[in-house]
Each structure stands twice: as C-alpha cells, then as structure tokens.
Amino acid sequence: MKPQAAAALAGQWGGERAGAEKQAVAARSLRVKAPPRTLILIAYLALLLLPIYWMLNMSLRDNNDIMAHLAFYPQHPTLQNYMKILTDPGWYMGYVNSFAYVSINTVISLAVALPAAYAFSRYRFLGDKHLFFWLLTNLMAPSAVFLLPVFQFYSALGLIDTYIAVALAHTLFNVPLAVWILEGFMSGVPREIDETAFIDGYSLPRFFIVIFLPLIRAGVGVTAFFCFMFSWVELLFARTLTITAAKPIAAVMTRTVSASGLDWGLLSAAGILTIVPGALVIYFVRNYIAKGFALGRV
Amino acid sequence: MAQIEFKGVAHSYRRSPATPEDYALQPMDMTWKDGGAYALLGPSGSGKTTLLNITSGLLFPSEGQVLINGSDATRLPTAQRNIAQVFQFPVIYDTMTVFDNFAFPLRNRKVKEPEVRRRVVQVAEMLGLADVLNKRASGLAADAKQKISLGRGLVRSDVAAILFDEPLTVIDPHSKWSLRRKLKQIHQEFRLTLIYVTHDQAEALTFATQVVVLHEGRAVQVGSPTDLFERPTHTFVGHFIGSPGMNIIPCEIDGSGARVDGRLIALDRDYAKRAIRANGKLELGIRPEFVRYRADAADGYLPAEITQVEDLGNYKILSARLGEHLVKAKVGEDTRVAGGVGWLSFPSEWTRVYADGVVLQ
Amino acid sequence: MRKTLDNRAWFLVLPMALLVAFNALIPLMTVVNYSVQDVFDATHRTFVGADWFREMLHSDRLQAALFRQFVFSGLVLLIEIPLGVAIALVMPRKGGWATSLTLVLMALPLLIPWNVIGTIWVIFLRPDIGLLGHFIDHTLGIHFDYPTVPIEAWVSVMLMEVWHWTPLVALLAYAGLRAIPDAYYQAARIDGASAWAVFRYIQLPKMRGVLTIAILLRFVFSFLIYSEPFVLTGGGPGDATTFLSIYLVKIAVGEFDVGRAGAFSIIYFLIVLAFSYVFYQVLQRVGAGEKA
Q1: Prediction ipTM score
Q2: CATH architecture assigned to B245-359
Q3: Fold match between B4-239 and B245-359?
Q4: Do B304 and B343 meet the contact criterion of CB atoms below 8 Å apart?
C-alpha cells in the first residue's frame, strides 16, 4: 500500500491529526522484510560448520597429500583413514569404550535421578533445600579438584580402567543435572494425578512406571540427551581413570603421534567419527528437544 | 466513522486448500456498521478468531475483499486501520508504567507529549486507573491489566473500532461484571464499533445489539438477541442459544401437520402446505419456554412420560419422553408437576420445521 | 505445586545422595586432608595447618591464573551473550524442517568431545594445513603463530570458545523467545511499534529468565574450562593461557604436589561455591517469578 494511498485513507478517518499519526506508522510499515534475517542465519550456520567441514576435508585425504598443499576440498578423496580406524582395534575400541561408559552412565543417572526428582517435586523434607543446593555445587564442581582424589580412591577400589569407573565418576555432574531437569518436567504434572492413582489403589512404584513416566516422556528424553552429551564430551576423568581396557576415543586420539609427526588425516577421521554418534542422537531426539525447550525448566 | 464490509471473504490456513474442510472461514459477506455492538458467538474452532483477525488486519484473508468505508483495505496493515484489539489474556508491556503503556501507541505515532498526557489521563480516569498511572503495569491484577489493554486502544484518537477476543477469559467472575458494564459505557460514550468474540451466549446476548453465530466457519445467523432466540434460522442456533437449548425432534409432514412417531402436532395450515414440499431431514423445533404443560389431558395436548423435574428457583425444567424423543419444557415455579404421564402442547406460532438444519420460512 | 511434608521422601532421595556422596564427599575429604598436610610419601606426612593455604593465596602464579580466568570468563560473557541473543532473533520462528535443521546444526558443536574441539581448531588454525590459519597468514599477510605469541593464543582460544559455546546461549535464548505468545507481537503491531521497540519492550523482558540462566551457566562453566584450551595451546605460550583448571591439574597430576594442589583445590572450590550460591538464589527467584 503506497504512502499516499495510506495517507488518503487515513485522512478519511477523522481529521488531520489522525492522518499525521497514520503517516508516521505507514512510513515505518514499509520496513525491510525477511531476507536479511535468513541471510544472517545462513552466514552464521556456515561459519559454524566451517571448521567441522575442514576436518571432514582432512579426513578424506592422505596425510602426505595434506602436508603437500592446501586444498578446499579433497581432490583425491580416500577412505583409508576411516578404514584404518574401523579395522584397528586400537582405534575402534576407543569408540566402543566411550559408548559403553556413556550408556552405563546415562542409565545409572536416570535410575537414581528419577525417584530423587520426584521427591523434590512432590515433597518437602528435612534438609531438602540444602540437599538441592549441594547437588548444584557438584554440577558446577571443577573436575580438576576431584581428579586426583577420585583417581586414588578408585585405584584403592581396583576400579581403574573399567567402564563402571568412568560411568560412576561422570555421575558427579550428570546426576545433579538430571535431577534438575527432571524436577522441572515433573512439576508440570499436577499432583492430582498422583493422588487419583493412589486412591485407585496404585502403589508408588507401579504408579510411577505405568502412569507417571509416560507423562514425562519428553523430560526423560531431554535428560537422557544431556547425560549422554556431557558424558560423551568429558575428557579429564575419562582419560585419567583409564589405561587401556576402557580407554575412550578422546585419549586414543591424543596418542597418534608417531616418529614422523602427527597423522592429520587419521586424526581428522577419528574426530569426525566422534561427532557422528552425537549428530545421530540429536537427529533422533530433535522433536523432544524442541518440545523440551518449550515445556521444561528452561 | 468506519464501516467495514466483507465481500466473499474466506480463509484457509493451508497453502492450497482443496475441500471446504480446509477452510477455517467459509466464503461470507458481512457488514460491520459504524457504531454497532456486535458479538461473534460460536463454539471453539468455529472461526471466530479468524474472522476477528481478518477484521483487524492481523490476518490477510486468502480470498475475498475487505472494504473500509468503501475503499479496499484487504492488505492494509493493522497499524493503519483504525482498530484496536484486546486479547484473551492481558497484553501489557511489563517493564513500563501504566502511563507509559497508554502512551506507547501515541508515542509510536509521534504525537506531541502534552497531547499524549491529556489523552492518557482522560482514558485512565474513564477506566478508573488514574491513581495507578505511575505504578509498574506488571504489578496489577488481571482485570486492571485488561483495562490497560483496552485503554491502549481508547487513547488513539483515530480508533473507530475495538475488537475483543474473549477478553474476560482470565478475569474472575466478580470483576467480569464490572468490566462488562464498563464496555457498555464506553460504547455509549465513544460511539465506537465494538466487535466481541465469545463462546459464552450469556455474554454475547447481553453485550451485543447484533449477534453473529458462527458454526464450522460459516456465519449461520446474524440478528438481534431476540431474533436469535425467537426465530433461529438454524437448528445449530436453536441448540446453542438458550438454556436449555431448543427442542429438536425428527418428524414427518402430512396434510394436517407434523407427525412425531405418528402423533400429530398441529401447524399453521399455510405453513404445513409449504412444509410438505420440503426435502431432506425434517425436524421440528420449539423452545422449552414455549412448550405448554398440563397435568391432565386436554384438546391439542399430547401425552408424554415425565422423566425428570429440575427445580431451579423461579422456574422448573421438565424432561419428558414423547414416544422415543426427549422433550424439555420450561414451566413456572408454581406449576405443579406430577410424575408419570404429563400432557404437552406445541403452539403452532412457536413451532418451526427445519429441513437439513435450515428453517422453513 | 503444594508439597507435603514427609520425611519418608528421603528413601527416594537416598540412592542419589549416596552416589553423589561417594563421588564427591569422599574425594573432597581427601583433598581437605592433603591441603593441611605435607606428604612426602605414604608413611611420611606432617600436619602443617594452614601453611599451604597461606602459600597458595600469596602465590604469584595462582593470582595470575585467577586474573587470567576472570578476564577470560568476562570476555566470554561479553561476546557470547549478545551474540547468542542476536542469533536467536534470526532463528526461524515457526516449526517445520527449517527449524529442525537449524536446531540440529546449532547443537552440533555442543556434542563434540572437548578434546576434539581443541583438535579441530589446532588443524583449522595452522598456517600450513588449516583454512583460517592459511587465510590469516597468506591472504591477510599477518604472521600468525599462536603457539608463541600470547595475544594470538588468547585470540585463538576466544575464537574457539565462542564458536563452541555460543550455540548454547542461542538455544536458551531461542527457547525463551519461543515461549512468548503471539498476542504480544500482534498487540505491538496494532500499537505501531518498531522492531527495536518490540525487542526492547517485549522480547528482552520476556527472556530475562533464560538469559539469567545462560549468563550464570556460561560464567561458571567457563570458570572450569580445561580440555579445549589445553589441547589448543597447552596453557601456553608459557603461562599465557593457563586458566585455573589447567594450573590445578598441572600441580596436582603433573607435579604431584598434593599439598599445594589440595589447598588450591579448596580455594578454587570455594570460589565456585560462591557462584553456585548466587546461581541457586537466582534460580529460585526466576522460578518463582515465572510462576507468578
């Protein structure tokens, strides 16, 4: 609608004063539309993906080729780096190990956090606020502080180099996180549902599994996702508490120094492979994430 | 000041609608006359909010034309129409004071400060918010906040119509009443066009001079509250309005009148003649208010089994079985109702025949 | 939610409490133990009281690391918060494939193991094989050698950090934005508000809760950072990018100086505890505010 037409219409509507007001708004209505927004977003996403793309680029090239010259894309792409990793137990066990302790950790964290979150959501009890605060401090605790003592403690228990060691160590921060997120979701379920179930004769465990859990499905999904994520990415404990048998991929990667220097192609392929599980997980839970953002604590 | 017309306006939220079901609003013509008080009444999903948003310009219709005072305004942005809208929950600017909230639409339109102050104070006084002008808007109660939403529309000198989308939803019952009175007051003082969306018939019937009943995207009937009550043109309107709603009973027509399960209900002779020629599913409609009851038999009365009597203070509601069909009658509080068999009559001046839901004139 | 007072809830909480105590309390006790003793070996230890604490608090190296840490965390907030909000504003608002794709892509950096983040940027920044390194060195002509130049090391670390964590702020801000009902935008259109007014009076106020959480989360977690800068610069050149955690691990595991490390750990932990307390209080108030 042209400014003149808008002004004309405005003029019809009751006086010059109204007309002048109308024009001010009309002028602003001819604003710049959507495209700049999309452009900025695309630019940002491109910048975000660039370093990852670069690593992908490296991963598909032979190390000599890499050192020889810089190329924006692999001119002679090869899968040899990936083949090496997938066939060499020294490499692929790293992934297996990581995956193992991350999964164990997620299960333990959820198992322990679910009843606790329920308690925080539905009840007040002696020391509840202090307990919650203490949990939060563990979420924020510097791993570096606990590193050495945990190492010595687990050593004494003979747990070094086992999946359970890393899985347990990671519960230090994952359990508080899980409780925090789950409590938020649980508080969205009205207490009346619990009470109705109890009146109907459900026991607490049965009610929890049969009725309650389905209601907080999205919350469990979000929590599992975050537990997986934080455990997967953590390096310090994972490297310190393992030697060979449970060595995570992160530690394996820091080992690829040979006499001729670092094999960049191999390293890149290893790196790309560590991103794949995360990308897959996120792809599968993307709807939960979107819903979780809308519904949950955050 | 503002007459808004719809010509063939229809809207679908889908990109390429194929069937009528894809349309939220079926093609319609409508005129909102200047200074009228309209209610848009209908159940959830009937298209009321869609219709409202097309009127205010928050939504551009996928088909049809919107004319404001004769000029095409179909794609005119909201800020350039002389319209304000109040939403289901109070929409205020939390970080601003009440004063700044009122002043906001004026300042955006570059109105000079002294004028802003004058209008804000005037509207605040009218709404009873003069003493909280310097308070933060976020701290007030829900009904005060809705008044602020309303006020932002009233401050603008160019506003000719105010649209309401179920504005009393979050207001407590006590405040609802005083807010409604305030709206009527505003209507009289400012002579604005008011369009009010609601699913509550009591609200619609007390507020409006003209009610538009919407059902599944179609404006089923437009008329005064009395019209809608006494002469519903659709079984839906009959059902929706009135408490309890109109009795709708399947019937057949023969020369003498309507037959319900073989029993004759007399109709006006000319009416009956027209009714015989009607096609489609035939139903008889009569409001419980107009059904007459006697405890004993009389000419023109049919026997029915009284199944329930609800005593509601100044009146009683009888539920009776006429053959297979349930009929309700409203009778006075002093009427003695005996259980068992009662006698009902359906005066022909209040009885209408409906073919496929549409009334036979 | 009305909560009933019932101490039997402790049974529900017990497994969690025991697990976390196992992981947290016992090691913490060990740390306290170390911090007040001079340990020569398993059998020779003497109680030294607050000596280690005194030494650490006066330690130049510790103070320098603390200063570096605050500068780092401050920069993190200064850059990531506005940037994250800006990104959230341009993210698609409706549902659909564009939104899903954007969410997945933005979450990608957050799922990469932290050492791999370091590796990605080591590669990316090398003048010989990295795109950015090459660009700076050859195209822009600036001699780029971050392992030896402190300011370049800082820029590199900041670049990596912002790249890594801004998506989190953006996602949180986006969640806050998505929660704003349409009616507010509609009312703003009717009121003739400009885009800036909409941001200032509607979007920003309504994002207050998530932004507070984002600020606190980013500040506290940036205070604990270890792997990424360690892989990228190793804390160098020299001590230039040695942040608190890196310094602590150096003393504790590298030099095995458990006494100093113990004292340092306590100090470090107390600082973080203070921030956690602030976070906790804010959480309570934000939570109450949202329900109001």
Answers
A1: 0.84
A2: Beta Barrel (2.40)
A3: no
A4: yes
Task: Tell me which amino acid residue B287 is.
Answer: R
Average pLDDT in chain B:
87
The CA-based diameter of chain B, rounded to the nearest angstrom, is 77
* Options 3.40.50.2300, 1.10.3720.10, 3.50.50.60, 3.40.630.30; CATH of C59-291: 1.10.3720.10
Q: How far is CA A220 from the centre of its chain?
A: 14
Where are the domains positioned within chain B?
4-239, 245-359
By Cβ distance, the residue of A14, A15, A21 closest to B110 is A21
Give residues with Cβ within 8 angstroms of B324, minimum separation 6. Answer: B261
pLDDT of res. A6: 42
Nearest-Cα distance to chain B for A32, in Å, is: 15
Q: Give contacts of A279 with chain C, Cβ < 8 Å.
A: 104, 108, 111
Q: How do the domains of chain C map onto residue ranges?
A: 59-291
> Using CB atoms, which residue from B77, B82, B110 is nearest to A13?
B82
Set of chain B residues whose Cβ sits within 8 Å of the Cβ of C205: 93-95
pLDDT in tens, A61-113: 888 888 887 888 888 888 888 888 888 888 888 888 988 999 999 999 999 99
Beta-sheet strands, E only, within A111-156: 123-124
**Could you tell me the domains of chain A?**
1-31 (no CATH), 41-78 (no CATH), 82-295 (1.10.3720.10)
Rounded Cα gap, residues A65 and A62, in angstroms: 5
Instruction: Judge: domain B4-239, CATH 3.30.1360.120.
Output: no
**Of all residues in chain B, what percent are helix, strand and coil, respectively (each to 5)?**
30, 35, 35
Instruction: Please judge whether A51 and C121 are an interchain contact, meaning their C-beta atoms are less than 8 angstroms apart.
Output: yes
Q: Is A4 on the interface with B (CB under 8 A)?
A: no
> Which range among A13-22, A167-176, A216-225, B237-246 shows the weakest confidence by mean pLDDT?
A13-22
Please answer yes or no on whether B157 and A14 come within 8 Å at the CB atom.
Answer: yes
Chain C residues lying within 8 Å of B154, measured CB to CB: none
Q: What is the pLDDT of residues B309-359, one digit of tens each?
A: 888 888 889 898 888 888 898 888 888 887 788 888 888 888 888 888 888
Residues of C in contact with B14 (CB under 8 A): none
Q: Which residue of C has its CA nearest to A293?
A: C175
Q: How far is CA C211 from CA A78, A198, C221, C284, in A?
A: 45, 39, 15, 15
Q: Which of B91, B96, B108 sits opposite C183 (nearest CB)?
A: B91
Span A41-50, average pLDDT: 93
The whole model's pTM is what? 0.81
Q: Is the pLDDT of residue C203 over 90?
A: yes
Q: What is the pLDDT of residue B121?
A: 92
DSSP, res C226: -
Span A218-229, mean pLDDT? 85
Q: Which residues share a beta bridge with B97?
A: B136
